[in-house]
Design a protein that fits this description.
It contains five helices and 15 strands. By secondary structure, it is of the alpha+beta class. It has one domain: Jelly Rolls (Sandwich). The strands form three sheets. A seven-stranded antiparallel beta sheet has the order 1-11-7-15-5-4-2. Strands 3, 6, 9, 10, 12 and 13 form a six-stranded antiparallel beta sheet that branches. It starts with a helix and ends in a 7-residue tail after the last strand. The relative contact order is 0.22.
Length: 237
């Protein structure tokens, strides 16, 4: 797994940090190779890895299916989760500071998980999502409890316009007293998208203010689309 750690460390984190501050998201290109993507997709059918399956239509979340991993996580996912979090904690802490929110996130991911567990948030939140033709995901936020980290990531396991068409990743930004702004992204297979979980600070004429954001997936027109979401906090249920 040293290869994954090296790929993450070698990303241009200065540019990534600037993009997250400015836009609420950034793309890390080509972190996973084709074999790693295919292995994660094959594991979708291994029930031993998962604690819960959600049929999205049943809850009006969209159309598709996702599965929550159980602990312990597969090594690849665990290594990515542990390697990316320390890069994002300073960004999250800067957001808390400028928005005058009395929260300081720890430097190491295991320390964040301890905070979750002390608040009875014990369930793994990493999930793999599968969409077929007509599949989509309604706009939402992944919070899961009182303890939550404001940035998360998605691993893209399928190639757009080859494995599937449509199915763009959608972010919406709700600026106070203004109409919502939609941001449509199309990362490639092996890319990692970093984006805000629920809000980000924006600088105005009187200082920073909070802009709420949600994310979802547009309708898949053909093929199958797989992604893997890594949320850094654990869940109550």
């Amino acid at each position: 797994m040293q290869n994954i750690q090296s790929k993450i460390d070698s990303q241009n984190w200065e540019s990534i940090t600037e993009s997250i501050h400015e836009n609420g998201f950034a793309i890390l290109p080509k972190v996973l190779n084709n074999e790693q993507c295919e292995d994660l997709k094959l594991d979708y059918d291994n029930p031993a890895l998962y604690r819960k399956t959600v049929v999205m239509e049943r809850y009006r979340f969209g159309l598709g299916e996702y599965k929550y991993f159980n602990y312990p996580l597969p090594d690849l996912i665990q290594n990515i989760r542990s390697a990316v979090y320390p890069k994002l904690a300073p960004i999250a802490n800067a957001w808390m500071k400028v928005l005058n929110i009395n929260t300081i996130f720890p430097d190491k991911h295991e320390e964040l998980l301890k905070l979750c567990h002390d608040n009875n948030q014990l369930k793994a939140t990493v999930l793999i999502l599968k969409y077929g033709k007509g599949g989509f995901n309604t706009l939402h936020q992944d919070l899961y409890g009182d303890i939550y980290f404001p940035i998360q990531i998605v691993l893209f396991l399928s190639e757009p316009d080859e494995d599937f068409t449509g199915g763009e990743f959608v972010l919406t930004q709700q600026t106070p007293r203004a109409q919502s702004k939609a941001i449509v992204l199309k990362p490639k297979k092996g890319d990692i998208l970093v984006f805000t979980t629920n809000f980000r600070p924006v600088k105005g004429s009187k200082g920073y203010y909070r802009v709420n954001m949600k994310h979802g997936v547009s309708e898949v027109q053909s093929g199958e689309r797989y992604t893997l979401g890594i949320i850094f906090h654990d869940a109550l249920n």
